[in-house]
Amino acid sequence: MKTRRFRFCAVLVLALGLASGVDAAVSVVATTEDLAALAREVGGDKVSVEAIARGYQDPHFVEAKPSFILRLYGADLLIVVGRELEQAWLPPLITQSRNAKIQPGSSGYLDASLTAKILEIPVGQITRAMGDVHPLGNPHYWLDPGNGRRAAQAIQAKLSQLDPANAAYYAQRYADFDKRLAQAEKGWDQMMAPFKGLKVVTYHRSWPNFAERFGLDVIGYVEPKPGIPPSPAHTLDLIQEMKRQNIKVILMEPYFDAKTPNAVARETGGRVLVLPPSVGGVKDVKTYFDLFDYDLKLLVSAIKAAAAPTGAS
Amino acid sequence: MCARTTRILRCVGGAALSCWVMSGSASAQTPADQSLVAVRTEVEKLRQEFDAIRKQYDARLAELEARLAVLEGRQPQAAPAAPTTPEAAVPAGAAGAGGPTGSLPVYGNVNVLSKIFNPDIAVIGDFEGAAGRNLVNPQAPLEMAESEASLQAIVDPYARADFFFSFGSDGVEVEEGFITFPTLPGGFLAKVGKMRASFGKVNAMHTHVLPWVDRPLVTQNLVGGDEGIADAGISVGRLIMNPWVFLEATGEVYRGQSDVFGSYTRSDLTYVGRLRGYQDVSESSNIDVGASVAYGGSELEPGLKTRLFGLDATFRYRPLRRAIYRRFVARTEAIWSRRDLEDDERATAFGTYVSADYQFARRWFVGGRYDFSERAFDPSVRDKSGSLLLTYWPSEFSQVRGQFRRINFGDGPTANEFLFQFLFSIGAHGAHVF
Fold first, then answer.
1. Domain A2-186, CATH among 3.90.1150.10, 3.40.190.10, 3.30.1330.10, 3.40.50.1980
2. pLDDT of B52 strictly over 90
3. What is the ipTM of this complex?
4. Shortest Cα–Cα distance, B125 to chain A (Å)
5. Whole-structure pTM value
6. Which of A69, A95, A127 sits opposite B246 (nearest CB)?
7. Mind telling me how many Å the CA of A130 is from chain B's nearest CA?
8. With CB atoms 3.0 to 4.6 Å apart as the test, which of A120, A183, A310, B178 could cross-link to A138 if both were Cys?
């Protein structure tokens, strides 16, 4: 059975030219490119990894295309972001995948949020009057390298469980990743050290983990409430607040419309930074390390430009 | 653990005893300084010992709590609304909703965790209105057309269940209620219960996911209208693996009682088959085609049969980078019906629709539809219709839609109507159909 399914999968992979690692032992599907990148760090050439959502796509609004069913059909391991990020599209895909291994609760289903540090878990009564709130906390947790490490560790444990023959390999890959990440984090911290406590505005609530990790203070959002598009009244309030607190940087995800952020930036003399929140968000960001390298470099240069006496122009 | 507790008790007891001895010795007439000092030293020693044990216990307790936190963090299903580590306050706006603040009330005497296994519950309201003239098939000027309640959950490691109850002007009915077995061997996916049959696209859609206020004429005339082919039965689907496209074959058997088919004996079952192909053209666009057949007893009288054959095609375009602002969907279905009549006669009718929707802003959609359909039992009567639509989405959970519709009835005066609809949903965020 396993070999037949594998052969189907192999034919498909060959035909579509999707992956080079045809002889890989473990077939991994991750819902986002960030988790896919982490799985590649840990799995090396013992796994073949595919992502469902692209890095430049809003992960809340992915379509449950039947082509994704084919990807899940042959998967040994499904890694999800969790915290209801994929709630609108993943459950029907899993149901239709006909794959017992990756059903929730099965050994091939890994929710990477279970070991992550989750922020903004609502307390008290929550209602949709607050917009599209995530009752289980903010799902954009991968933007803290600490959570990337925790997710990688969970992936290492899961891969070792599914493929015990290569457990030592995965352990060694994880240890190496951990070391390189610690090294990189030192560099990132140094980059951001002079700007600790810098106040910024973001479009969506995608950046709390990033802000906390790198010492940014998010004082407002372009969206009046999560998932609710900008309203004129809220935009005016935001402009006033930004002027009052002299805030010059607006962080935005690449999948939103730049019209309102640009208007706010014009009014406040600030600038809009289109930061990819995920691996694959722009062409150059291919690994988990690239993501922070790219975003932090862009951020630092924007802060410096905004701080220049001539202002942003 | 127990031994240590006993030791603590012994220490405390010892201390209390010493205190009593001390007060006793103070009231004694011979103040023996030396013995007093000895007792004091003893008490001091006990106190120190007690402090040391307390510190040790505090440390162990903290360690256990930390371990417990880690374990809770690794629970397979995180407890909703039971935050273990609240890191930030509720976003502003809660007060505006008029809801209470503070922690959630717990009703009844059970632990809140027992509610985790409750199914996902949602209610969708569908309010419809009509203005203008329609003498053939008028609908109410204002109507709460449907309130649909859905209950969905995973049953056990082998199945999930979905229930949809429809509360309409005709009363309550189970619109769908079925169990799905997603993990059968051999790549099969089976559903058992009452379902909307997989005949074409529109028949399987619930009213609230339609891209129009009404259903196309071909559905009304040939496939049973709003109810459609919905019946108790068994559905089995399988992927046909091949190197080129997504291909899925579905076979279904139903009891035979629906708005299209009739059943008079046990063997009068309805059979439905569907073959669906899907291919990504690019990451933003795709084509979805299908062919369906349905065969069963006629609704007219025993012994007669009804056959339906349908083709459908859908083209979708949705750029990934602008997925929440732009999309275009074009769809069409063609349906042939062959119904036995009395006296060995047969009625062969054809109907089709072509429809397109375009999203031009985050909250706005425009659309149009052309309909043509013959009547099922009198194919010489041909109805034609054209519609224009405008849809507004305040959020993902509500929708306002207006539809201008002109129908040229084959046997009556032309109807010009304005239909409108308010859709609103509360409760669990269900998955979007594709």
1. 3.40.50.1980
2. no
3. 0.87
4. 16
5. 0.80
6. A69
7. 5
8. A120
